[in-house]
Amino acid sequence: MIRVLLVDDQPLVRSGFRALIDLEDDIEVVAEAADGREALALAREHLPDIALVDIQMPVLDGIETTRRIAADPSLTGLHVVILTNYGMDEYVLEALRAGAAGFLVKDIQPEDFLHSIRVAARGDALLAPSITRRLIDRYVTQPLTASGTDLEELTPREREAVALVARGLSNDQIAARMVISPATAKTHVNRAMTKLHVRDRAQLVVLAYESGLVTPTP
């Protein structure tokens, strides 16, 4: 069972998401919070698998909430998915750096919403092609400096796997491209994340572009 924490200051939004989740056999809402501070307390109490967090909230916003979840050793298994009205706004990159596993736009189709929860629960990044494209465009128009992470620690196959993750490929697609098994592809990606000290695939995408491992194409 996938355990979900809903975090949004609008009760109507929370009730709408809960209504969808309550229809599913493999997902359940374990708690609801109206702000980030309440979310942190409930996360520590219920230890959910997924936190759906609104990016703009009173008391503690979604970015700071994500940052504190990522820094809490008791919440290492919690994947934060940011809820936004905009798809890609000025907060996206900052939220990814803070530890968000991805983004959902609030007007998402119900079936896509439920699928996204299951994807995030598996530990995969929720970066839809449109979001990834906008993220790449951001690097083209506003290039950032490298994070200083030493990519030389990666093996050639790990570097190749990271580059493919940054292009938006899933483990199965990476496996097909590298002519290896999906399990081996997952191992390459996981070892790269460990060596580069990143929390998840979303942060791996950011690092790949910041470090210059992947060069955006306008």
TrEMBL record:
Boundaries of every Response regulatory domain copy: 3-121
Signal peptide stretch: none
SMART domains to which the protein is assigned, alphabetical: HTH_LUXR, REC
UniProt keyword terms in alphabetical order: DNA-binding, Phosphoprotein, Transcription, Transcription regulation
GO biological process, one term: regulation of DNA-templated transcription
Domain (HTH luxR-type) ranges: 147-212
Pfam families associated with the record: GerE (PF00196), Response_reg (PF00072)
Location of 4-aspartylphosphate modifications: D54
Molecular function GO terms recorded: DNA binding
Superkingdom of the organism of origin: Bacteria
InterPro entries given in the database record: CheY-like_superfamily (IPR011006), NreC/VraR/RcsB-like_REC (IPR058245), Sig_transdc_resp-reg_C-effctor (IPR016032), Sig_transdc_resp-reg_receiver (IPR001789), Tscrpt_reg_LuxR_C (IPR000792), WalR-like (IPR039420)
Protein known as: LuxR family two component transcriptional regulator
